[in-house]
Design goal:
By secondary structure, the protein is of the alpha/beta class. The chain is built from 3 helices and 10 strands.
Length: 167
Amino acid sequence: MRYLLILTAVLFFAWTAYPYLIPPQSPQGGDGIVIRKDLNRLYLFQHGKLQKVYPAATGREVELTPEGEFLIAVKEADEKGLGKDKVFGTRWMGLNVPGDEDGLRFGIHGTNEPDSIGKYASAGCIRLSNQDAEELYDQVSVGTPVRIMRGSRIHRLVTDWLKTKVN
């Protein structure tokens, strides 16, 4: 019985740690972006290889950030900031979400709230620090595939718990 309990604990720990240690597969095996909402991470792939992992903020509620396979439909840049009160930082990469194919509703962008990065804080977009959004902006083009994954509820809880312990 004791060994079964230990084995169960080890398996649970391994399952919980797995997504933090092993990145997802690249979209279409080539260039692209994968966003894991449960981990608040954005993975950039080039030529099928992971290039960088960025901390991100996703929707306050799971349903706010759309899930699925999308493309970057539009890119906008303004060194003074985008949107009212510059809420979108200096870069916007809009996604062709169904019902918003022009990429003006949901996107990957910088923020004027850098403390929100790593949290479930947005109204549905994917927030990055302005520095990370500027770096990513320079590495992707219109038409870049973007996969947004829900992930596990347990991983969302663990990520949320870890974020509160670190801050």
